[in-house]
Each structure stands twice: as structure tokens, then as C-alpha cells.
Design brief:
The structure holds two protein chains of two kinds. Chain A has twelve helices and two strands; from the N terminus they run H-H-H-H-H-E-E-H-H-H-H-H-H-H. Chain A is mainly alpha-helical. In chain A, a hairpin with a 2-residue loop joins strand 1 (132-135) and strand 2 (138-141). In chain A, helix 1 (4-35) crosses helix 7, helix 2 packs across helix 9 (188-210) and helix 2 (42-60) crosses helix 10 (220-235). The longest helix of chain A is centred in the first third of the chain and has 32 residues, at 4-35. Chain B has two domains: 28-144 and 279-357, 3-Layer(aba) Sandwich (Rossmann fold), CATH 3.40.50.2300; 148-274, Response regulator (Rossmann fold, 3-Layer(aba) Sandwich), CATH 3.40.50. Chain B is globular, with a radius of gyration of 23 Å. Classes of the chains: A mainly alpha, B alpha/beta.
Chain lengths: 307, 398
């Protein structure tokens, strides 16, 4: 039985998933667009954010402190990685960058195993976030509402940062023409470092937020990285607005596909076939969307203006 | 003349002596394939620690022969598992290959062991093929066949009057086996079924919303490893805790400490089925659990208990052959009798050399120290044989 409240609830689930993807995609799209760097290790920063938030939460017995601590920690890790490793790679081709950042994934995964062990960590939630709230007659998990609100707040902050501030101006300028920005006497290296740090902190925040929903474990970054790449391809590389729209689109399509596709198929197929075809097609939907976007609008839905 | 004769006899004795000694092996070599890396490395660690306890109990010797166990990591990949098995059989020249968590890995490695004429003692993977048409005289299991545990759960649900059930499981071989096993015995209606993407999917919001809308009498899950924790947390966050949760192979001594860490109280009082529980009242199990807890400060899981049994089964075989590892028939005959101290107490082997054993309903409870564990509530199956035994061509002659 498909009711409107169920559809509404699934839409909320989609938005919540999309908001998390946005946090990851915003950083990755900036790094891609401005620095022209293929960074596969973005998912590792997400994992580190989750682990750090979980550890601090256990030390201090406060999830909020854990969440807040993950931000500066991943920012610093991001900056260190940029300065030590990635700087040497800007002049290299994308293939070298892929190889090097894949190496970083292995490095971070093994480091996490050494420090935290293979078992993963669970993050306890404070009671006020643990229950569910009534949203228009739908009992919805309080924590997921919090994630949606936090994600939208970050989106608002990024909009302000990129559109209204001097740093944002430099970021936009860097995205459309790097050489020109450097020629005007701007320290583009510093901008790169800041952008990478910001991207890392956003990924860390996503990881910290996801900890109490899913489990914190080694390799959690790799799965989500693929979806994030799909988001920025659909949204247009280098575009925050594109990342936002792309992330919400992917989130909603993924959830609605999982929720209703097999029911939909049952209208036309025998129930056994629908049961198998439903999940299979649902997991393909976003890739079909990506292929469509690449075919009709290869630059993405909201491409960053390049000169 | 007489002197010459004595010389001859002593020479003969000398010549014969090395052969007499050679009969007894210098070392019993056991290859143990499990998963030591990644998230599922937790399972491998538990198995390895349980093997250590078994060796402690044996004093490191079988029939007076020192034992060496070589552990290998299969990385949950069939091709890696096969490669490691080949290394164990051909390079290390082990006498027994044991371990194996995953059905698809043991299916890939099976032929290597059998072709080399070695014994394969499966410690976990309850593959239906190996219990059925791929059964072999040199393959033994100290676990169960996959279907048996969800079949027992189906009986529980019938007894508890569950009329409609919502099923959520991962979409891969074992996930489908579990759902099929459940359907063999569950008589109520399946109100809805979601097969989720494995192992990528750790968000179950869409499935949980559907499950709540279907208003079932209960929810059945199968999620091995870290996915259990994610599922149960989201289950409780979604306010589903009033709908009873039934599970197989999901809630065990490995996931419970993690769930307790996050204070996921929703898991307390939930039911699952299994052949064993840390509170099992057999002499061997009590000793195993006590020594494991003393050494490693946590409860062993069923993976560990099965691994302990694998080593004890091998020990009984080596004893029967008096340490002469070339006496394959003597070792096989002994193992078929299941005459060793097992954590499950006395049991017998079926014609497919899988255990015919009891299955229990377990409830998640707090122990005397406040740690979360499982407790046996009642016996569901007595001397239960898996449904694939009849597809095995071997005849029971023991």
C-alpha cells in the first residue's frame, strides 16, 4: 500500500540523504573545479571525521562536542595532506593524481586500523536526538531532522561565503580562470590550501553526522565517494549550486527508487520478477540519470562559468 | 656365527627403526583460512582467539605430536581464499585445512583441498551445495547448514502467533538463503520484503518507512557484521521498537558490545536462533567460555565456538591415528563418530558429514556484570538435520 504520508516520509529520507551527499560533493566539486585535482581520498576525510567525532564523543560523553571537534581536526588534516602530498601533484596529469590519492586511501584505511582496530565504533546519541518527532502526521526520527537542518544551514553558509565574501570571490575567480587570478597577484597557493581545508572539513562534518545513523568503520568512505562523483558530474564540476541540486536529486531518486520501484513493477510484472527487478533497477537509476545528463548536457546542469 | 647373527639382527633393527618412528608425524600442520582484514576481520580475530584456547586446552599437542596452525586472510574474496588454500596445501604441506567464514570462498577453495587428498574442516560457511551434491568423504563441518537457523526462526514465529512479517535482508547468496530457509517453515504472511544492496547500503530509511507502513507483527532481518548495528540503530531511531525484531546471524557476541557502546537498548529482549549460546550448559562450552573470557575479556561468538570444535575434531582424528597422519581411513572413521568434547555436547554426523544437532531460541539480555549477551530461552529443534543431506550421495555407514 502506497499512501501519501509514506511518499512524504520517503521524500524526507531522500532529502536527508541528499543533504549528506551535498556536504561531500560541495568540497569535492570545489577541489575539482578550482584546483583541477582528482581527489579520490575525499572519502577518507569523511571516514576520519566520523572516527574523530566518535572518539571525542566517547571521551567527553557529549555528541555535540564530538561533532564540533571533527571540524577543526579534519580541516587541519586536510591542510597537512594538501601541503605535504598534493602540492607536488598539481602539475602532474590526472592519472598520477588518481594513483597518488588512491594510495592515500590505503594509507588512511590502514592507519585507522592501527589506531582504532578493525571493529568500528558506535556513536551514542543524546536522548533528545534519539526519539522521533511528528512532522505533519509522520513520526520521523529526530536525528534525521537535525541532519537535514544542519545540512541546509551549511548550504546557506556556503552560499554566503561564495557569493558575499572576498574569499568567495577568489574561489569563483579561481574556478573560472586560475592563471588570471595568479597573474593579478593573488597567492593562489594559499587559496588552494584553504579550499582544500574547507572541503576536508565539510567531508569531516558529513562523516561526523552520519556516525550515529550508519556505523563508523574502515572503508565507509569508498562507497559514498562513488555517489559523490555522480553528484558532481550531474551538477557540473566546480559549481556549488550544481552540487546542491545534484545531491538532492540523487538522494531523492535513490530513496524513491528503493522504496517504490518494486511496487511499481508489480503492476506490470509477476510478483517474483518484480521482486528481483525492483532492487536491481533501483540501484541503476542514478547511473541512468548520470548517463542521460552526460549525453544531453555534458557540462552538467549548472556548470561553473569558465573563460 | 652367533655374533654375526646378532650383528645382522641389530642392523635390521637399525634399518627398520627410522620407519617405525616415521609413522608418527613430527608435527600436525593445520591451515586456517579466515578473514583478518577489513570490517569482517573482527570475525577472524574471534576465530583465531578460539583456536588459541583450543590449543591451550590441548597443551599444544595432539597424540603427543606438536601442533602448528597457519592462519591466512581471505579478504572475503573467493580468488584470494583459493590462492591462500593452494599455498597452504602445496607449499606449507598442511595435513588439515580449516576455517572459512564465507560460503562463496569455501566453494572456491574446496576442490584444492579435496584434490590434494587432505581433510577440509569447515568452521562456519554452511553452503547448501557442500551439504548437498558436492559433499565429500574428506569434508566435515563443525557449524550448520545455512538454512537450518532461519528454519528454526520460522518455527519460533509460528509458535508466537506471528501472522504477518516484514523481511529485510541483503541481496546476495546468503541473504537469499536465509529468506528461503525462513519461508520453508514460516506459515504466516510475508507482509513485505526488501533485499538491499550488499555491502554498500548502510542506510535503511526507505525500507524502515515501508516496514512501518505495512504494520507487521514482526520484522525479520539477516545482517552479518557492522550492518546489524546500523540497522538496529536506525530501527530504534525510526520509533519501530514496539514491533518485535527477529534475527539470524546478526546479533551475537561481536555486535552486542558495539550496540551496548551506543546504548541501543532496542536490541535487548529481541530474539534470534542459533545452535549455541555463550550460556550453553555443557562442560566443554562452560570451560571454553570461561577461559576465553579470562584471556580476552569478552564473550566468544558462535564463530569462535565452531572454530574451537574444528580443532577438537582434528585432535580426535589425530588421536585415533596415534599421530600417524597417513592413516586417513582411521582419522575419517573417528571424525564421523563425532567423538570429541564439543561445545554443543554430544551430537552425530549425518551422511553429508554436517552435524545433526539441536537449535535454540536465544534472547538478548544483560549478564550479571551488566554486559549484553544472549541467553538460551528454549530448544526449538532436537537433532535437526539440514534439508540438503538427501541430495548428498554418501551413505551413512557409521
Amino acid at each position: 500500500m502506497v499512501t501519501w504520508t509514506l511518499v512524504f516520509e520517503q521524500l524526507l529520507n531522500g532529502v536527508q540523504f541528499g543533504v549528506l551527499l551535498f556536504l561531500l560533493a560541495a568540497g569535492l566539486t570545489l577541489i575539482f573545479g578550482i584546483m583541477d585535482l582528482m581527489n579520490l581520498a575525499h572519502g577518507s576525510l569523511y571516514m576520519l571525521g566520523a572516527y574523530i567525532a566518535a572518539t571525542v564523543t566517547h571521551w567527553t560523553d557529549s555528541f555535540l562536542i564530538g561533532l564540533v571537534a571533527a571540524l577543526p581536526a579534519t580541516l587541519v588534516i586536510g591542510i597537512v595532506v594538501e601541503v605535504l602530498v598534493l602540492r607536488a601533484l598539481y602539475r602532474r596529469g590526472h592519472l598520477d593524481q588518481v594513483l597518488a590519492t588512491f594510495g592515500l586511501i590505503l594509507f588512511f584505511n590502514e592507519s585507522v586500523r592501527l589506531i582504532w582496530g578493525p571493529a568500528g565504533i558506535q556513536v551514542p546519541l543524546p536522548d533528545f536526538l534519539n526519539g522521533s518527532v511528528d512532522l505533519f502526521g509522520v513520526p520521523y526520527p529526530m536525528y534525521r531532522v537535525t541532519v537535514i537542518v544542519a545540512g541546509l544551514a551549511v548550504a546557506g553558509f556556503l552560499y554566503w561565503l561564495v557569493v558575499k565574501t572576498r574569499l568567495g570571490m577568489l574561489i569563483r575567480a579561481g574556478a573560472s580562470n586560475r592563471e588570471m587570478v595568479a597573474a593579478l597577484g593573488i597567492d593562489i597557493k594559499l587559496v588552494f590550501t584553504l579550499v582544500f581545508g574547507l572541503g576536508a572539513a565539510l567531508a569531516g562534518l558529513a562523516g561526523a553526522l552520519v556516525g550515529p545513523i550508519r556505523s563508523v568503520g574502515i572503508g565507509m568512505g569508498e562507497n559514498v565517494l562513488i555517489l559523490t562523483l555522480v553528484v558532481i558530474v550531474i551538477g557540473g564540476i566546480g559549481s556549488i549550486r550544481g552540487a546542491f541540486v545534484g545531491a538532492l536529486l540523487i538522494g531523492v531518486i535513490e530513496i524513491l527508487g528503493r522504496a517504490f520501484l518494486s511496487t511499481l513493477f508489480e503492476l506490470v510484472l509477476p510478483s517474483n520478477a518484480a521482486e528481483t527487478a525492483g532492487p536491481a533497477v533501483a540501484s541503476m537509476l542514478i547511473y541512468i540519470l548520470m548517463a542521460g545528463v552526460l549525453f544531453f548536457r555534458p557540462q552538467g546542469l549548472f556548470p561553473a562559468r569558465t573563460g | 656365527m652367533r655374533k654375526a647373527a646378532i650383528c645382522m639382527v641389530s642392523a635390521l633393527a637399525l634399518l627398520a627403526a627410522p620407519q617405525a618412528f616415521a609413522a608418527k608425524a613430527e608435527k600436525v600442520k593445520i591451515g586456517f583460512v579466515t578473514t583478518l582484514s577489513g570490517g569482517p576481520g573482527v570475525i577472524g580475530k574471534d576465530m583465531r582467539q578460539s583456536v588459541e584456547i583450543a590449543l591451550d586446552h590441548l597443551g599444544g599437542k595432539m597424540a603427543g605430536v606438536p601442533v602448528e596452525v597457519i592462519f591466512e586472510d581471505d579478504q572475503v574474496k573467493p580468488e584470494v581464499g583459493k590462492q591462500k588454500t593452494e599455498k597452504l596445501v602445496h607449499k606449507d604441506k598442511v595435513d588439515f585445512v580449516s576455517g572459512f567464514i564465507w560460503s562463496h570462498v569455501v566453494l572456491a577453495a574446496r576442490k584444492t583441498v579435496v584434490d590434494a587428498g587432505k581433510f577440509l574442516i569447515i568452521s562456519n560457511a554452511g553452503t547448501s551445495q557442500i551439504a548437498g551434491r558436492l559433499c565429500h568423504e574428506n569434508i566435515f563441518s563443525t557449524a550448520w547448514q545455512n538454512d537450518q537457523v532461519p528454519m528454526a526462526m520460522g518455527e519460533v514465529l509460528n509458535k508466537r502467533g506471528v501472522k504477518s512479517l516484514y523481511v529485510v535482508a541483503p541481496n546476495y547468496a546468503a541473504g537469499r538463503d536465509m529468506v528461503n530457509g525462513l519461508s520453508r517453515t514460516f506459515k504466516g504472511k510475508i507482509a513485505g520484503k526488501d533485499m538491499t544492496k550488499w555491502p554498500d547500503q548502510t542506510d535503511f530509511s526507505a525500507e524502515l518507512a515501508k516496514a512501518r507502513a505495512a504494520k507487521p507483527d514482526g520484522v525479520f532481518i539477516f545482517y552479518p557484521g557492522a550492518h546489524t548495528n546500523a540497522f538496529i540503530r536506525q530501527y530504534s531511531q525510526a520509533g519501530m521498537t514496539r514491533t518485535p525484531l527477529y534475527s539470524v546471524f546478526s546479533i551475537d557476541s561481536l555486535s552486542l558490545p558495539r550496540l551496548q557502546e551506543a546504548n541501543t537498548t532496542a536490541v535487548l529482549g529481541t530474539y534470534n536462533t542459533q545452535f549455541w549460546s555463550p550460556d550453553m550448559d555443557t562442560e566443554t562450552s562452560r570451560k571454553f567460555v570461561a577461559d576465553y573470557k579470562k584471556k580476552f575479556k569478552s564473550y566468544p561468538s558462535h564463530y569462535g565456538a565452531q572454530s574451537y570444535d574444528s580443532i577438537m575434531l582434528i585432535a580426535s582424528a589425530v588421536e585415533a591415528a596415534g599421530g600417524d597422519l597417513s592413516k586417513m581411513d582411521a582419522m575419517r572413521d573417528r571424525m564421523r563418530k563425532a567423538d570429541f568434547p564439543s561445545v554443543r555436547g554430544k551430537f552425530t554426523y549425518g551422511n553429508n558429514q554436517f552435524p545433526i544437532q539441536d537449535f535454540f531460541l536465544r534472547e538478548v539480555v544483560k549478564d550479571a556484570d551488566g554486559n549484553w549477551t544472549t541467553k538460551i530461552v528454549q530448544k526449538i529443534y532436537e537433532k535437526h538435520q539440514d534439508p540438503f543431506a538427501e541430495k548428498c550421495k554418501m551413505k551413512k555407514t557409521w
